[in-house]
Amino acid sequence: MTTILDGKLISEQIQAEILLDVNTLKAQGGKTPHLAAVLVGNDGASETYVAAKVKACEKAGFISSLVRLPETATEQELLAKIDELNKDTAIDGYIVQLPLPKHIHEHKIMEAISPQKDVDGFHPQNVGRMALNLPTYLPATPYGIMQLLERYKIDTAGKHCVVIGRSHIVGSPISILMARNAVPGNCTVTLCHSRTANLKEHTLKADILIVALGKSEFVTADMVKDGVVVIDVGITRIASDKTKSGFKLFGDVNYEEVAPKASFITPVPGGIGPMTIASLLINTLKASKKEVYN
Ligand code: NAD
Fold first, then answer.
1. Contact 82, 40 (CB under 8 A)
2. CB of 162 closer than 6 A to ligand 1?
3. CA nearest 162: which of 187, 184, 137?
């Protein structure tokens, strides 16, 4: 039997839990968490993601601010805005939506964000703390995966976890988290990427397969063993005249083929996407309560 890992449902539960917590904080005269999002340019997918984050903040009782800069904004202008956000005591945490326009160096921007306010968990200091198993803001997508595994009580200890993709925001951090001496964690991890030889040999050995490469329906039934736990992170937007939005979303896994072989699987949409947003809210609440840095 296959169980669908319902990220939408779990993220709604998490948002409801956060709302309760925020209401208690407010009743005690505490601070209302405040998340800001910086959006440079008007990339369609980024607009959608930021809108979803702002909406989730409202549902969780947070204050949210959207800071918009034009596509033509210079690196200096963005750095000046970041300096402002770092100093603004009303804002607990903020994110700079990626990708940035090509003329802006992403790493320079990530390093300029105050680690205390880095609720996306991308600052090198927070990445280092994650690797050392110290209190930190875990990057939102890997954190969302961990929570989904935890809430569905999926046993990961001693399991072989294969990750496809080594990006700084998904593949690399999730490979570190799954190998940590923690729950979930304690996996033996194989990290695959574009230069991996004989990918299928690796994926066929996976008890848990985490896929984040950005190629729609890349993983097919012949690449997985029976009973595998499949986490599909991929989101590819493909134009469609059959939907109201004008596009359809595809994961990196061929769901129709793979689901019957899986013990657990995330759908796209409704899997890791909403969990990513829920994780961002948890990190912002932690920032507001000064739970990571005090
Ligand atoms: P990326 O483009 O930065 O990296 C892709 C990785 O896949 C690279 O490390 C590359 O080595 C690997 N790769 C490419 N082709 C491969 C192949 N043939 N075999 C093995 N490995 C290969 O990707 P990213 O930013 O991690 O995003 C991956 C996907 O996840 C995208 O579809 C993205 O939209 C999606 N995503 C979703 C969420 C969410 O909230 N659900 C968050 C972040 C990213």
1. no
2. no
3. 187
Taking the CA of residue 276 as reference, the ligand 1 atom at the shortest distance is 40
- Please report the pLDDT score of residue 294 as a whole number: 81
Superfamily per CATH, domain 140-273: NAD(P)-binding Rossmann-like Domain (3.40.50.720)
Q: How far is the CA of 16 from the centre of ligand 1 (A)?
A: 30
Catalytic residues: 53, 97, 120
Helix %, strand %, coil % for the chain, to 5?
Answer: 40, 15, 40
- For ligand 1, atom 25, name the residue with the nearest CA: 167
pLDDT, tens only, 232-244: 999 999 999 989 8
Residue type, 77: E
The domain defined by 28-114 folds into Rossmann fold (3.40.50)
Question: Torsion angle, CA of 274/279/282/288, rounded to 10 degrees?
Answer: -110
